[in-house]
Amino acid sequence: MPELPEVETVARGLRRAILGRRIVSVTLGKTDFIDDPVALEQHLPGREIEAVERYGKFMLLRLSTAARASRVPTNGDVVPASLLVHLGMTGQIAPHPAEQPREKHTHVCLLLDDGRELRYTDARRFGRIAYLTETPLAEELLGFGADPLEVSGKEFASRICGRRARIKALLLDQSVLRGVGNIYADESLWRAKIHPARTGAQLNKKQAGTLRRALQEILKKAIVMRGSSISDFLDAEGEPGDYQRHHRAYGREGRACYRCKSAIRRGIVAGRSSYFCPKCQRAPRGFAALPLPRAKRKKDN
DNA sequence: CTCGATCCCTGGACGC
DNA sequence: TGCGTCCAGGGATCGA
């Protein structure tokens, strides 16, 4: 599931692959996850992809203000605009040879001026794509919180400490921090030895500092490892990431904690599966972990 | 302000 | 082998 490190990996791949390419034409499949599908068809042809940026879990494909001398017909767009892309759970975006058969669930194809097609596939369609000019884009981005890689210790503490919400919910809240999802929330809480069900107000300054450092170190390492591939994450080169091999909590229910050998447990916090060490991460009063499921085996009874 | 519930959607895992 | 059921989760939304 694409979170900050995965989206950063994809953005870097796209930067290498499609920067400076011009969009020739647009082909759409299912469009229920696109803000305004017609806007894509009307405004993308003729535009050049001038930059690829990441903002939280979003990617921004910055488009040229107008088509330069080209045979590609345009609508004379002159205002700066971007294509906003969110990969949701299962979104993948990558260039393919145009003659290559399209994979199932391919919903957006941008034919480029070098003969390749930038394709967006998304089985569950939890992603989002929007064509936005500057002002709507700025408004869109206004509601997001701090970049977890850039946030200062002071600002991090001010956004966390004093809140009554659970720390897991705060980490997942994109208006608090932009880019953190379920995996990296659990991983950073495990490293900082903080239980996901504790409230922000229960953390002192020192714990907040520890958590911030843990989060930043984990995100940076995960970016170096090109993200986590749990089920189907692939980067812009179609390659899986490697960070899932370094997970210490996420997805490790019943397996030994890397620090203390206790069985990692799972519970629901903020409506999400949350993995934690019951010994290293002391639970607040009243918190109930899910019972450990029986070991899975082929034929066991 | 914070919570849980519900919905969106499909594929994979699991039980019988 | 096959079918039904549950679950995964980011985000929007709604009611408590």
Architecture overview:
The chain has 301 residues and is an alpha+beta fold. It has helices at residues 4-18, 37-43, 134-142, 153-160, 167-172, 182-192, 205-224, and strands at 23-28, 49-55, 58-63, 81-86, 91-97, 106-112, 116-122, 128-133, 265-269, 272-276. Helix 6 packs across helix 7 (205-224). It starts with a helix and ends in a 25-residue tail after the last strand.
List keywords for this structure.
10 strands, disordered C terminus, alpha+beta, 25% helix, 7 helices, four-stranded antiparallel beta sheet, DNA-binding, 301 residues
Quick description:
This protein has 7 helices and 10 strands. The protein has helices at residues 4-18, 37-43, 134-142, 153-160, 167-172, 182-192, 205-224; strands at 23-28, 49-55, 58-63, 81-86, 91-97, 106-112, 116-122, 128-133, 265-269, 272-276.
Number of helices: 7
Termini separation comes to 33 Å
Q: What structural class results from the helix and strand content?
A: alpha+beta
C-alpha-based Rg, rounded? 21 Å
In what order do the strands lie side by side in the largest sheet? 1-6-7-5
Percent in strands: 15-25%
Q: Categorize the overall geometry.
A: elongated
The share of residues in helices is: 25-40%
Total strands: the figure is: 10
